[in-house]
Design brief:
Blueprint: E1 2-7, E2 10-13, E3 18-26, E4 34-39, E5 46-51, E6 58-60, E7 68-73, E8 78-83, E9 92-100, E10 111-114, E11 118-123
Length: 124
């Protein structure tokens, strides 16, 4: 069992930056891939980025590519999402997820552990 707690959300102006953190407690965090998803009001949960447990390889949604950077620190049981050049359409609740049991890393259905989410609001 892994418990995930996100932090770092807030209100930022267009073009600004935020760094989200995900703190994990429990065993085997270094054996789990980690992902960030987001959910805007009235919309489904959308994949943002993932970092794999074995080679630290990363994948990004097109909307995040070039602006967001996912990272992890296994020694500290943490993951992060650095978000730069934020846009109003990035406004959403951002969730950290761990331990995928399927090949579709961009599908929320394959992720087993979730945090409670942190709100990101980008003003125009």
């Amino acid at each position: 069992q892994v418990r995930l707690v996100e932090s770092g959300g807030g209100l930022v102006q267009t073009g600004g930056s935020l760094r989200l953190s995900c703190a994990a407690s429990g065993r085997n965090f270094d054996s789990y891939s980690v992902a960030w998803f987001r959910q805007a009001p009235g919309k489904g949960r959308e994949f943002v980025a993932t970092i794999f447990w074995n080679d630290f390889g990363t994948k990004y949604a097109g909307s995040a590519e070039g602006r967001f950077t996912i990272a992890r620190n296994n020694a500290e049981n943490t993951a992060s999402l650095q978000m730069n050049n934020l846009k109003p359409e990035d406004t959403a609740v951002y969730y950290c997820a761990a331990y995928s049991t399927g090949s579709r890393y961009d599908s929320a259905e394959v992720w087993n552990y979730w945090g409670q989410g942190t709100q990101v609001t980008v003003s125009s």
